[in-house]
Amino acid sequence: MPAIRVLCSEGQSLRTGSQIVSFPVLPDHEAAISPKGTALHPHDVEVADLSTSKSLNAIRISWFDLRAALLANESESLTYGLVYESPRRLNDCFRMCYRCPVGASLCLVSISVAFNREWLDAINSKVPQSTPGHNLDGATAFEALTTLAGIESNLTDQMAADGASASILYPEYLIASVLSDAIPRIGSYRSCNISGPIDEWPLLYYSASPYQNNIMAWSCALKPSDYDLDPHKYTKMQMQVTVTGYGYQSSTSSDYLSLVVLITHLLLALMHTMYIISTRRTSGCGDTFSELVALAQQSQPAGNKLRNICTGINRLERFKHKVRIKVSEKHAQHLELAFREADQYETRQYVALGEKYGG
């Protein structure tokens, strides 16, 4: 992640033809501005790229190499600066100039990023002229962004106020945003063919496979353009990518065991649903353990099935007995539990559908 440092100074009034400007400096380990907002380390440098035209209808932006103007070890991360020239009318002898030194470094490794003129010119290239409502004929990327963001009018108002202090934060935000987005893309021109529109850039030395099945089958997805002419020139390496997300992927024995439990529960629920649909019988009684305990309290003794359990249960056979719900022999509106034995199960009365019990 790049860290961008930008310091835009207040406007400097220059005569027509003057090329000497006072450039602020961003030291690596010192403060750059005073509490009043003035630069602490200004340098008077000659900027040969300044416009000498007596008429400048739009803002003009250019890069300046600061390495020759800085003292030794004054700022290792500072290499280039951006110069804003406000519009100048034909009868004006002065124009306002704003200087913005730029420094960049990588946050995690604290390595300074050095710019070169070719890369800066690449991110500040000419823009298309077809922009509705704006005259961007011959404008660069920074000039177009400055105009469309309203920064140009802000700087023009400052010039009209005879050098009065105005907000220079917007140019700083603009420069920092563009560079923080452009630095991670360094080197993309080495891997893509950038001759056409950006949304149609193909790979520079590789051609994508026209067959989607090759990609889905982990086959050849990218092939060098001259592979068919000289296949021995390249060394083939295979790579497998596993994409995980919110899907459930089983990999350990506990995962398989949980799947078995889940599938078993699904089968039981399916069988119960099919039984209810086929017999058209269901009930909301006895769904909880407390309801069954209360029903057992109101039932007759179980006889031999639950004999000698008043002091505890030590054998699992006691839990293997099947129990049903029947109509009580003493009260026709009362239900009770009955075990499968001669004295209870054979004489049990079935619960009638639609009958009201518990009255």
If you had to describe this structure to a student in words, what would you say it looks like?
The protein has 359 residues and is of the alpha+beta class. The protein folds into 4 domains: 185 residues, no CATH class; 54 residues, no CATH class; 35 residues; 75 residues, no CATH class. 22% of the residues lie in helices and 17% in strands. Strands 1, 2, 5, 6, 7 and 8 form a 6-stranded antiparallel β-sheet that branches. Strands 3-4 form a two-stranded antiparallel sheet. Strands 9-10 form a two-stranded antiparallel ribbon. The longest helix has 27 residues. It is elongated and about 120 Å long.
Describe the secondary structure blueprint for this structure:
Blueprint: E1 2-6, E2 12-15, E3 20-23, E4 43-46, E5 60-65, E6 78-85, E7 94-106, E8 111-112, H1 117-123, H2 141-148, H3 151-160, H4 169-182, E9 206-208, H5 212-216, E10 222-224, H6 253-279, H7 289-297, E11 323-327, E12 335-339
Antiparallel strand pairs: 1-7, 2-7, 3-4, 5-6, 6-7, 7-8, 9-10, 11-12
